[in-house]
Design brief:
With 410 residues, the chain is α/β, with parallel strands linked by helices. It folds into two domains: 153 residues, Rossmann fold (3-Layer(aba) Sandwich); 177 residues, Dihydrodipicolinate Reductase, domain 2, CATH 3.30.360.10. α7 packs antiparallel against α13.
Length: 410
């Protein structure tokens, strides 16, 4: 079973038509939302394209942009007409900004989110919500201080209603006891992964001249300028969890939503740099996870950067199996329960699309609509992904301490 890649969906966002009916409640300039973009790299560019194409229907304005690299920032300012800022705190000081899109590397997500909430902004933060579990706890606590602030985590697949609908079927007993679920996100690269040609090094970048390298490092370990780390940060533990936090976060969040899960009980991860052995990447090219949730199920996450053959995305119950596809999902009875379980097909109405996800946040700000990927769902995803990273790095089987809200050796 083939699924579109995240890149396909981000690109598709800009082409998606936004119906007037969806925004019938938005009237006049008084309801216009002003958006600030912090981080002007590749992911943010997909967001910007979609927002600009739909700005009239959404009744929004991209009013400010910020990046540590002048070239990227100026490009976004020219495309959007937004005011350019070198320091994100100056953007947050702009009282006219309603919400910010945080599309920086992962190691900056938490601090900018906390600062944005303190500055009175609503937040759309790219996935994962934070780089670490401790940071996620701080974001959840901060939101409790500001009950009126909205935070959407950028797992745009949650704007596909298949996962909410799957839970309704599972809750009603359509599968029987759920024991196992599986999902994948694999790719293939010829020479190296998360490298050229998609992640090119821009020779125009000159730290101290047109790029603030120390600001980019932020809370991470201080290092001399390294264009590999700047342009290909997903390959380094200081800034990313690699496959876990760039890819699995999209997949595990679907299953967490579909099964109404929270924190895993046990997590173990395996893998290594099996194909791209000469790559300077710190992260593995093959990374697989087993996560046991209290009372079941076991979640299987499958990924390699050296073979893109897909694995079916499905949930196994004692009575029936739920299989996701591009149009929604199908429930198929097990042979032993063919006379008791029922076949069922769901056709989705949403999509894995950044514009849908922005629209949901905008509706949450304007009318209080429920968020598709709120901070708690973001927290559950961070815990699973970060436990998997730590399990791999330590080569240990980890257990979640529910009382202390931290991972420890099992």
């Amino acid at each position: 079973m083939a699924f579109y890649s995240r890149r396909d969906f981000v690109a598709g966002a800009s082409a998606l038509a936004v119906t007037a009916k969806s925004f019938a409640q938005v009237k006049g300039a008084n309801d216009r939302l002003k958006v600030g973009i912090i981080g002007c790299g590749g992911m943010a560019s997909g967001h910007l394209d979609g927002l600009l194409k739909a700005k009239d229907a959404m009744n929004i304005e991209v009013a400010a942009v910020c990046d540590v690299y002048d070239k990227r920032r100026d490009n976004f300012a020219q495309r959007s007409g937004g005011k350019p800022y070198k320091n994100y705190k100056e953007l947050l000081d702009d009282k006219t900004i309603d919400y910010v899109l945080i599309a920086t590397p992962e190691h900056w997500h938490a601090q900018i989110t906390l600062d944005a909430l303190d500055a009175g902004k609503h937040v759309y933060v790219e996935k994962p919500m934070t780089h670490t579990i401790e940071e996620a706890k701080k974001v959840v606590a901060k939101l409790k201080q500001y009950p009126g602030r909205k935070l959407q985590v950028g797992v745009q697949g949650m704007s596909d209603d298949s996962y909410e609908a799957a839970w309704e079927q599972i809750k009603a007993g359509a599968l029987g006891k759920v024991v196992l679920c599986q999902i994948d996100y694999s790719r293939n690269h010829r020479d190296d992964f998360w490298s050229a040609p998609f992640y090119k090094i821009d020779e125009d970048a000159k730290p101290g001249v047109n790029l603030d390298w120390n600001m980019w490092l932020g809370p991470a370990k201080k290092r001399p300028w390294d264009p590999e780390r700047y342009f290909r940060w997903r390959r380094y533990w200081d800034y990313s969890g690699g496959i876990a936090t760039d890819l699995y976060i999209h997949r595990c969040t679907r299953l967490i939503k579909a099964l109404n899960l929270q924190f895993p009980e046990f997590v173990v991860a395996t893998g290594g740099k099996f194909e791209f052995t000469k790559s300077i990447a710190e992260i593995p090219d093959t990374f697989n996870v087993l996560a046991d949730y209290p009372g079941g199920p076991t979640m299987q996450l499958v990924s390699t950067m050296a073979n893109d053959t897909p694995v079916p995305h499905l949930i196994r119950g004692h009575h029936a199996t739920l299989t996701f596809d591009r149009t929604g999902f199908t429930i198929t009875p097990q042979r032993e329960f063919a006379n008791e379980a029922k076949t069922f097909t769901f056709k989705k109405t949403g999509a894995e699309n950044t514009n849908y996800h922005h629209r949901n946040l905008q509706a949450a700000i304007r009318t209080g609509e429920a968020l598709k990927c709120d901070s708690m769902l973001g927290y559950y995803g961070v815990v699973l992904c970060e436990m998997s990273v730590e399990s791999y790095k330590r080569r240990q089987y980890l257990k979640w301490d529910a009382t202390a809200q931290k991972a420890k050796k099992a």
